[in-house]
Amino acid sequence: MFNVVLVGCGAMSKHWLDAVKQIDGLAIVGLVDLDAERAKARAREYELTGAVIGTSLDAVLDQTRPDAVFDIVVPAARRDVALSAFAHNCHLLTEKPLADSPENARAIVEAARRAGRVHAVVQNRRYVANVRRIRRFLDSGAIGAATSIHADFFVAPHFGGFREEMAHVLLLDMAIHTFDAARYMVGGEPASVYCQEWEPASSWYRQGSSASAVFDLGGGKVFTYAGSWCAAGFRTSWEGSWRIVAEHGSLAWDGHDALTAELVLPVRDGLFDKTEPVEVPPLDPADRVDGHLGIIRDFMHAIETGTQPETRGDDNIKSVAMVFGAIESAETGRRVAISKEAQ
């Protein structure tokens, strides 16, 4: 049996616990939250009758001695949770973002390395079926190498609570999903960013609900991001909408089910090269999907086999570096280099 202590019993914990119910051989042996009543309520809701309930992670880890910790706390508490988990010889799977600052991200990754523990992040947009399909299609060379990657994200949720008071709320809370998906789909390595944030007059957020950024992803690849948490009307998918321009054609994805590609032909009609549709193949049997469920299964598989999961911390920190590079650029008004040291 693979024993886990879950820390942070807020709304997001339901996604994790719904996935856990579908995994044989995984047991939640402890629930930790600053509000003990909230932890008890989660235990009742998911019938975790034997789980130890507590407000101190160290105390619950001492009592239960689990194999791993599932971290669903607010980002500001993530470093303390990570260090506690590694000190108790636990593996760690954490909600995104990996950390609330570049310094804390590097400290967590280094602590995992020293402890020799598996550390991964729930970067679940990689586990979306069409993200997998796009990566395989681009890797096939069917339209050549990607050169320009464009993503739009326009969603206007009224969350209430801490998000509406956060600084850099779009970049820090949501944009990492899009940044990581872009990096994954085209095999990019972030080198620099220029970003601007603003607060529209209609916004109900304190700061940073709208942003536009341009990233150099190396190898001649440029990624543009335009997003807003308060753009009413014409809502995009939570995955955003995408256009990827390549050497010999383009791919478009609406973030839902519409995924199309066109190949340039060696024939011109007036000013324009002719194009023809090209099929984006379906999922490969080896493609791992299913969001939280897929990531948790990969995490367990990595521990069992002594390998590293796809969303391991020392890779995910590159997507975190994109976020904090964009924040620094927005604050300073200048282009920011994303150094290897930041990753």
TrEMBL record:
Pfam families: GFO_IDH_MocA (PF01408), GFO_IDH_MocA_C3 (PF22725). Residues 2-121 form the Gfo/Idh/MocA-like oxidoreductase N-terminal domain. It comes from the Bacteria. Residues 131-251 form the GFO/IDH/MocA-like oxidoreductase domain. InterPro entries: Gfo/Idh/MocA-like_OxRdtase_N (IPR000683), Gfo/Idh/MocA_Oxidoreductases (IPR051450), GFO_IDH_MocA-like_dom (IPR055170), NAD(P)-bd_dom_sf (IPR036291). PANTHER family: BILIVERDIN REDUCTASE A (PTHR43377), BINDING ROSSMANN FOLD OXIDOREDUCTASE, PUTATIVE (AFU_ORTHOLOGUE AFUA_4G00560)-RELATED (PTHR43377:SF2). This is Oxidoreductase domain-containing protein. It comes from Mesorhizobium amorphae CCNWGS0123. The lineage of its organism: Bacteria, Pseudomonadati, Pseudomonadota, Alphaproteobacteria, Hyphomicrobiales.
